Every structure is written in C-alpha cells, then in structure tokens.
C-alpha cells in the first residue's frame, strides 16, 4: 500500500511577534502521519517545537535551513492518536515574527515507517534543492518545506506542491511539496531569482527482518 494523502494542505502564519502559531482544528484519524513545516524569523534566538490537542509526539527531522534571519524546520508525528478537533500548535522559545506553518496528513503504508534522511539547501538563484536524500526500504516519501524571497515556488519534477503567503507579508513565498519515491533523490523546485531556503526529509517502510530458521539435532 502506498502513501495516501488525507485532505488538503493546512497553512497558518502572521507577522505578529508572539511565541506560538496554531493551525485551525482538524479531524485527524488514528494511525495517520502528520508532517509540519515550521518557519520563523529567529532574530530573537527562538527555537521551535510542535504539539497537539491529542498529545501526539512530533519529532524534529534534525536539520534547519537559514535564509538571512529566517529559519525553516520540518517535524513529523507517526501513527498518531486521532482527535475530532485536533489543534496542532507551533511553540517558539522567544517571540518570533513572520511565523509560518504548513501541515500535510498522510495515511502511511503498512509496516514500520522510519525517517531515512534529511538535509537542507539555501541560495540565491531560480533553482531550489538539497543534496540527494538516501532511502532504505520500500514505499518512500520525500517531503520538503521551503521559502523564496520575492517570488512564488513551482514544483519540481514529479512533486505535488502547494504554495501560500503570510497575510500582511508580500515578500516571503512559502511552499510544501511531496513525492512518492522508490529510491533516494535530490528534491528540487524552482522560483524567481532571489534568496531561498529548503528543508527536506525522506521516509520509508523499513525492510522486514529475514526469517530465522533453527536447526535441531537429536
């Protein structure tokens, strides 16, 4: 069974200087996976974490892209506990301006899903990318969260991309994209010429352990 997209992308963001950012309440089903892209201006030294009403654990994929004074990270929660009015909340350790978030939900394939790899990219050009991500196992998925200054993002080859902007901000253009893969690759997208940053992670169903056979002698 491949990854199944659940509903549409959900986004949040504003330009206030506060310590949290909440998504609108969603009906999340038990067993699904939630992926949350987190962006903010960290001039005050803030870091971020993710939680929700249902008490699910969100794991940081472990990398951070930096564009000037803006930071981008990606979190995920696997095999969640469902909740009919689940509010996913991003919390910052200090006041953060230009706070942005995107959330995607998938029903994962059967088996044990693990994060395989994560990496970042940043630059000043029309092409966004990260180094190639490894993938071990089957039914792979690559998720990216990205921001470009001054122009919107367009999907990379084979990716499904959803772009959005923060109300009150006409400069930062955000997007989340995903692609089902059978092998590792370098995720990519395009934008108008300007500063950009991207964080990406790969996930897959871990290969089953080989069967063990015992031999007995009389």
**3D shape:** globular
List low-pLDDT spans.
none
Strand content: over 45%
| Count of the domains | 1
Mean pLDDT: 91
What is the chains' assembly state? single chain
Helix and strand content put the structural class at mainly beta
Give the ordered list of helices and strands. EEEEEEEEEEEEEEEE
The rounded Rg comes to 18 Å
**Biggest sheet details:** 8 strands, antiparallel
User: What distance separates the N and C termini?
Assistant: 44 Å
* Helical run tally: 0
Q: Roughly how much helix do the residues carry, as a percent range?
A: under 10%
**Quantity of strands, as a count:** 16
Q: Can you give me a brief rundown of this structure?
A:
The chain is mostly beta strands.
Write the topology of this structure.
Layout: E1 4-14, E2 18-22, E3 26-28, E4 33-41, E5 48-52, E6 59-60, E7 65-67, E8 70-77, E9 83-86, E10 88-107, E11 113-129, E12 138-149, E13 153-155, E14 160-165, E15 172-181, E16 188-205
């Amino acid at each position: 069974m491949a990854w199944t997209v659940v509903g549409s992308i959900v986004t949040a963001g504003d330009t206030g200087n506060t310590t949290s950012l909440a998504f609108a309440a969603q009906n999340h089903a038990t067993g699904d996976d939630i992926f949350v892209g987190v962006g903010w201006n960290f001039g005050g030294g803030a870091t971020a974490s993710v939680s929700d009403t249902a008490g699910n654990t969100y794991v940081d994929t472990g990398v951070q892209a930096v564009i000037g004074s803006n930071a981008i990270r990606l979190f995920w929660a696997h095999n969640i506990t469902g909740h009919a009015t689940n509010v996913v909340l991003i919390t910052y350790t200090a006041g953060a301006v230009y706070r942005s978030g995107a959330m995607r939900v998938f029903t994962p394939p059967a088996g044990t899903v693990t994060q395989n790899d994560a990496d970042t990219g940043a630059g000043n050009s029309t092409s966004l990318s990260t180094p190639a991500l490894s993938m071990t196992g089957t039914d792979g998925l690559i998720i990216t969260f990205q921001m470009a200054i001054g122009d919107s993002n367009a999907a990379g080859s084979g990716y499904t991309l959803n772009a959005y902007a923060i109300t009150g901000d006409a400069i930062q253009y955000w997007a989340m994209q995903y692609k089902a893969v059978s092998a590792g690759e370098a995720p990519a997208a395009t934008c108008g010429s300007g500063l950009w940053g991207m964080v990406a992670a790969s996930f897959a169903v871990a290969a089953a352990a080989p069967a063990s056979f015992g031999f007995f002698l009389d």
